[in-house]
Amino acid sequence: MAKILYLMRHGETLFNQQKKIQGWSDSPLTEKGRKQAEIAGNYFRENHIQLEHAFSSTSERACDTLELVTDLEYRRVKGLKEWNFGTMEAEHEYLNPPLPYGDFFVSYGGEEEQAFKKRVSDTLLQLMQSVSGSTVLAVSHGASCRQFMRNWSHTSDVDQKERIGNCCILKFAFDHNTFKLLDVINHDFSNLE
């Protein structure tokens, strides 16, 4: 039987609001971000999804999001951290190159794209191999989620071309060491402005 991984991006943060580059640097959830996390938590309750294991990036914004989604005990995992943007951290987003970033950030002391993709993908594979339960929540970051999606795009018919928004949930099936994207859950946050 396939296990299910719910991979989720954290809620809106102060740096998101201020349009600052946020990788390994951190900033707190905004009030809107906290409400986004509560709405995401309601998704699991309303759909009677019983989470059995939970993991979070070591970044505070991810841990705080997870704690608003579920009261399940969880483990903080460094491998789920966002892309390391080097000295570009906390700078304004207008300094970002056009997508895809590739290895742009390496010259600023940041992480190479393929190394980043491998780190996140290997971490999630090891976590899913290690759990006995069948339903897992992992709270991570926008670029982390996107790189993981890209790593498994060859097995999946589902895709999302648009940006991965705050508290977006990616539902993957995991079977025989293979992930397949089943669904992209985007919540309606229009009333939170």
Automatic annotation (TrEMBL):
CDD domains: HP_PGM_like. Pfam families: His_Phos_1. PANTHER family: BROAD-SPECIFICITY PHOSPHATASE YOR283W-RELATED, HISTIDINE PHOSPHATASE FAMILY PROTEIN. This is Histidine phosphatase family protein. It comes from Enterococcus larvae. The lineage of its organism: Bacteria, Bacillati, Bacillota, Bacilli, Lactobacillales.
